[in-house]
């Protein structure tokens, strides 16, 4: 290593510099900020990012309850920090086995300001001053927030027919639009054919009708001029009491032919009624931080003649100017010579740059206006007498994106919020290589040994993956002030979220209670806490430095690091996108539950919002299954339940009340039936021990199936799911080998496990690391099946045991892999049996992890090396020893061992 390289990579090693903000993992401000420290007070609720939002357009969240504490019929009220009662709408989202409520979801009206810490208590609270309602008409529904009314169509293209306020129609004809071309590149020599398409409604369902929150779900497909229907979508319209805006949550499923259907644009389009004079019409684009680009459709500042200070100030502020008669006549008599700017575009084609341009009309040149780094995705189109504030959550993060405003000078202007920009290259979801001659299973397994990719022809398909985009439409009776516009933009881009205190999540014993609050009472415990903090901060910094953004990518992280190139292995088979491999979702959600840390929450939520849509198939031959890690999120041929499992998504649903996540939990309830169509072990286990039956592993398949059924049972209270669980648990528990049986036959029609005859014992390092430990903790908590629990405790005793112990019990032995990860299984067995020797052994196993060098309290490892050019494209901070597998499983083991056997840690 020469001196220059040493100075760059060696002496610059330092503790991890943070590039975090309160609203997410990436820096959205021009300055680097420390992770916010938010005070969580037991017994109270708070905003995930700390202080109450400046603009509050209605909020929804989830809250846990102890078994027996709350009944479904109990009334609840919200008490603000100042002691006043705030209107609250509540509904149960999960039940304990005795029928008592386990989780509730809650909503408060727009504009309600409960403060920074507030409480849910038993009792009846007040009704909102202006309740929200949904009324059915002949051809539409009217969702009324008490301030604005939206007419939701029952059929046709227009999802929202009208948006009204104070008796006036402000906006109309909100619909989905798109462009598709028949070739990936529009070559001059062979121009691609581009076709436009629009939404077409098939069904409308009123899910809630107030008094605080109303929800209407629209389902349909997009329709092309030739009559073809494709890209199924579901869109929910949310209205909160007293709100001047509505929220839209839109999900579409890709069901095209990846060889001929190249999406060129996807957008939400609507019209705005323009009643004001051209000089009293205003365009606003919110940029980064508090940045705001604001101009008039007919500009009256900077002219050769001055219309007057009051006139200029009014247009800049976005209020009506004084009457034309009060202007300087040298301007008012020449207004017809001032250009009308009809069209405006803001395009953000990458995470690191946007541009604004405008033109007078089609057929004339675009004029560059300005550029910036990251736009918030919030705009305004309208005038002094009203208009629409519109925006999108995670705008630049989900690039390429764009905002088009057209015909601003006409009586009916048009806005399109493109959540896939038509200025970007067409979306190409084809598989990234030609198979390289991997025609047989043997060849595919051999290739797996070099690039860690499980390839199979035809399996790297995006058919059935989905993406969700959240929009807000603010129906304004005047152009909002510049300050209000940026406050609205902050709320739209990063919706404020309410959470409970960590102590309250823990006290209810939800999710098995497999965690404790952070504890730094000893050097060893402090060392563990330091690494837990480090891992979250490190991954957040990597999201930003590695630009893990984009339409299909945002929310996921990479699997493994390439030390030589100083990059994550983004282009190497199964080492690229992680796709929930070894449970990073669980690690992050348990980390949030114990810490209440906003950065952890945002990293976990972004991951869930990605994985629930992109990494799971929602249609087609693989429906209900997920895809193993790969260069493309859908690229690997291993389509498995271990990725689509409800175990990873139920945290988000219960904590936030997110309806889209709830939809996905419903989708996977019977995902186990896919085992009858696709055997996950088809390449290595060529013969079926039970012909005519499917195969279900006692590890990854069963953990996913059990999580899906458990979630369905607690969400619905339907005992058929409990009975399925009980039956399967008895089959596993009564088998002589228990979990060491490895796999069972599976009757997909009856959804029953069937024991194989004469099975040899087996030990797989993957069986327990996709949620099996966590779901078994809950099953043993909720259901009394002694044989099942005994089999699980035996698995925990033996997995990491020495050779002699394994051979004495099983007649075979296997050196355990992922021993540190499985130390929490040993710890669980120690806790349940009161075995102090096993408790000590658990910590010894935990210390075996190579990356942590066996030194739990070691501090010098928790640092990064700063690397700059020419060794890398952009300056980065790297910790080459970090892998997502290890970070996830080490994190889970650390959290759970501290909860199970804390006193055995020396």
TrEMBL record:
Q: Locate the PcRGLX/YetA-like C-terminal alpha/alpha toroid domain: which residues?
A: 495-905
Extract the PANTHER family matched here. CONCANAVALIN A-LIKE LECTIN/GLUCANASE, TAT PATHWAY SIGNAL SEQUENCE DOMAIN PROTEIN
Against InterPro entries, the record matches this protein to: PcRGLX/YetA-like (IPR045793), PcRGLX/YetA_2nd (IPR048330), PcRGLX/YetA_3rd (IPR048331), PcRGLX_1st (IPR048329)
Lineage per the UniProt record: Bacteria, Pseudomonadati, Pseudomonadota, Gammaproteobacteria, Alteromonadales
Q: Where is the PcRGLX/YetA-like N-terminal RIFT barrel domain?
A: 44-120
Renumbered to this chain, the signal peptide range is: 1-28
- Highest taxon in the source lineage: Bacteria
The residue ranges of the PcRGLX/YetA-like central beta-sandwich domain are: 133-489
Q: Which residues cross the membrane?
A: none
Organism in which the protein naturally occurs: Alteromonas gilva
- Keywords assigned by UniProt, alphabetized: Signal
User: Which protein are we looking at?
Assistant: Tat pathway signal sequence domain protein
